Amino acid sequence: MSDILTLNSGSSSLKFALYPLDDARDLGALTPRYRGQFAGLGTATPGFQLHDAQGRPLDADPGPLPERLDHRDATTRLLAWIDAMPDLELAVVGHRVVHGGQRYHRPVVLTPAIVEELEALNSLAPLHQHFCLAPVARLAERHPELPQVACFDTAFHATQPDVARHFALPREFTARGLIRYGFHGLSYDYLTQVLPQHLGDAPRARVIVAHLGNGASLCAIHDGRSIASTMGFTAIEGLPMGTRSGSLDPGLVLHLIHEEGMSVEAVGDLLYKRSGLLGVSGISSDMRDLLASPAPEAREAIDLYTYRAVREIGSLAAALGGLDQLVFTAGIGEHAAPVREAICRGCEWLGLTLDDVANRRHARCISAAGSRVGAWVIPTDEERMIAWYSAGVIAEK
Ligand SMILES: Nc1ncnc2c1ncn2[C@@H]1O[C@H](COP(=O)(O)OP(=O)(O)O)[C@@H](O)[C@H]1O
Ligand SMILES: CC(=O)OP(=O)(O)O
Ligand SMILES: [Mg+2]
């Protein structure tokens, strides 16, 4: 049997899965033989989980985890596990690559030249791009003939109209590609594909998906196409995240540099690694810790997070001309009922009535009967999307 390996480097995780290539013609039929993740990367609580095809947890020893696990170490442990698996026969590797820049709007077979071109975008996604690409060379050393495919987070948003993508900057900046790209596209793409099977006959022309993980963004999807999103040129715009600030007054950045004498590197470190939930709470970037904490600072961080999400949902609803469905996904979206509750309460004016009981038990549909806007919890599956695209690309070769 030959396998598709998928790798998804998130800002706090390295997720992976192995799928039989034979199943890959149909997105719905793709069932992983194994799936797992190194989670809590860069935090005080790293972890490792592995599941079999039936979703049962498997005992696999990734070696003793250090106090803080980083992406490189997680990749080394994963590659060692793959090398040691006797029944794997890799046919293709699919990588999530966060930034495709101006050029890549569809999956592509990686060559050293394309990897170099994509590495040039590292500074636009410093928590992701390099970590997404680093395994490519390491796998090529072991398996020089193995095709490796990049699937881009930005690609799904290529359908956005110019008015959503352009900044109000002089035209020559826009022409150079200084525009809003949007991210989490594999997740939005997947949800768009599976939405019909969950929603049945419910209207779904105007949908907002809230991808709330360690990185967080919202996407406005009109008739299945992305028309606007909260993330822009980089994966820092929009909502506050685990450690990222989200949108700021750009004048504040100038102030930090000119008046407070901060270096450009120090400002980057502040905005990417020390802000968001971590910065506001002073406690943790992990929503679980904040929900469990009695500290008022934890409450303030959660309130700021949900307040910003509600405001941005209002903005995207305006772009869509109304709202039919709101979908929650990713680590926080799938698991944090109090966060969903606060966001849904803030959307009552849009016609959304929450079903508290359904929300607390993480039901698929969490809006009350009769709610004009539907609210849903649907797990994302970027790995499945990557596997499907990667198999498609090598079938065309
Ligand atoms: N049960 C839970 N309750 C609240 N938050 C959770 C829960 N499980 C995971 N999370 C949140 O989800 C985040 C990870 O989300 P995920 O989408 O896997 O991240 P990444 O951005 O690395 O892909 C964690 O940092 C944590 O804040
Ligand atoms: C783009 C991004 O922030 O991704 P993640 O949430 O996986 O870190
Ligand atoms: Mg993620």
Let me know the CATH homologous superfamily of the largest domain.
ATPase, nucleotide binding domain
Bound molecules: adenosine-5'-diphosphate, acetylphosphate, magnesium ion
Gross morphology is globular
CATH second-level architecture of the largest domain: 2-Layer Sandwich
Please give the count of helices.
15
The tally of structural domains comes to 2
Which structural class do you get from the secondary structure elements? alpha/beta
Helices and strands, in N-to-C order? EEEEHEEHHEHHHEEEHHHHHEHHHEH
What is the β-strand count? 12
Could you list the spans in which at least 5 consecutive residues all have pLDDT below 50? none
* Mean pLDDT rating: 96
**Cross-sheet strand order for the largest sheet:** 4-3-2-1-5-7-6
Q: What share of the residues lie within helices?
A: 25-40%
| Biggest sheet architecture | 7 strands, mixed
CATH class of the largest domain equals: Alpha Beta
Beta-strand percentage? 15-25%
Notes on the protein architecture:
α1 (71-84) runs parallel beside α3 and α6 (185-199) packs across α15. The two termini are 20 Å apart. This protein has a seven-stranded mixed sheet, with helices on both faces. A five-stranded mixed sheet has the order 10-9-8-11-12, with helices on both faces. A hairpin with a 3-residue loop joins β8 and β9. The protein has 15 helices and twelve strands. It has helices at residues 71-84, 112-119, 129-142, 162-165, 171-175, 185-199, 250-258, 264-273, 276-281, 287-292, 296-320, 330-335, 337-345, 356-360, 382-396, and strands at residues 3-9, 14-20, 34-39, 47-52, 90-97, 108-109, 148-152, 206-212, 216-222, 225-229, 325-329, 374-377. It has two domains: 3-159 and 389-396, 2-Layer Sandwich (Nucleotidyltransferase, domain 5); 200-377, Nucleotidyltransferase, domain 5, CATH 3.30.420. It has 397 residues and is an alpha/beta fold. The chain binds adenosine-5'-diphosphate (ADP), acetylphosphate and magnesium ion. Acetylphosphate (UVW) binds at residues 10-11, 98, 128, 153, 183-184, 213-215, 235. Magnesium ion is lined by residues 10, 213, 215. Its EC number is 2.7.2.1. It is found in: Cytoplasm. Belongs to the acetokinase family.
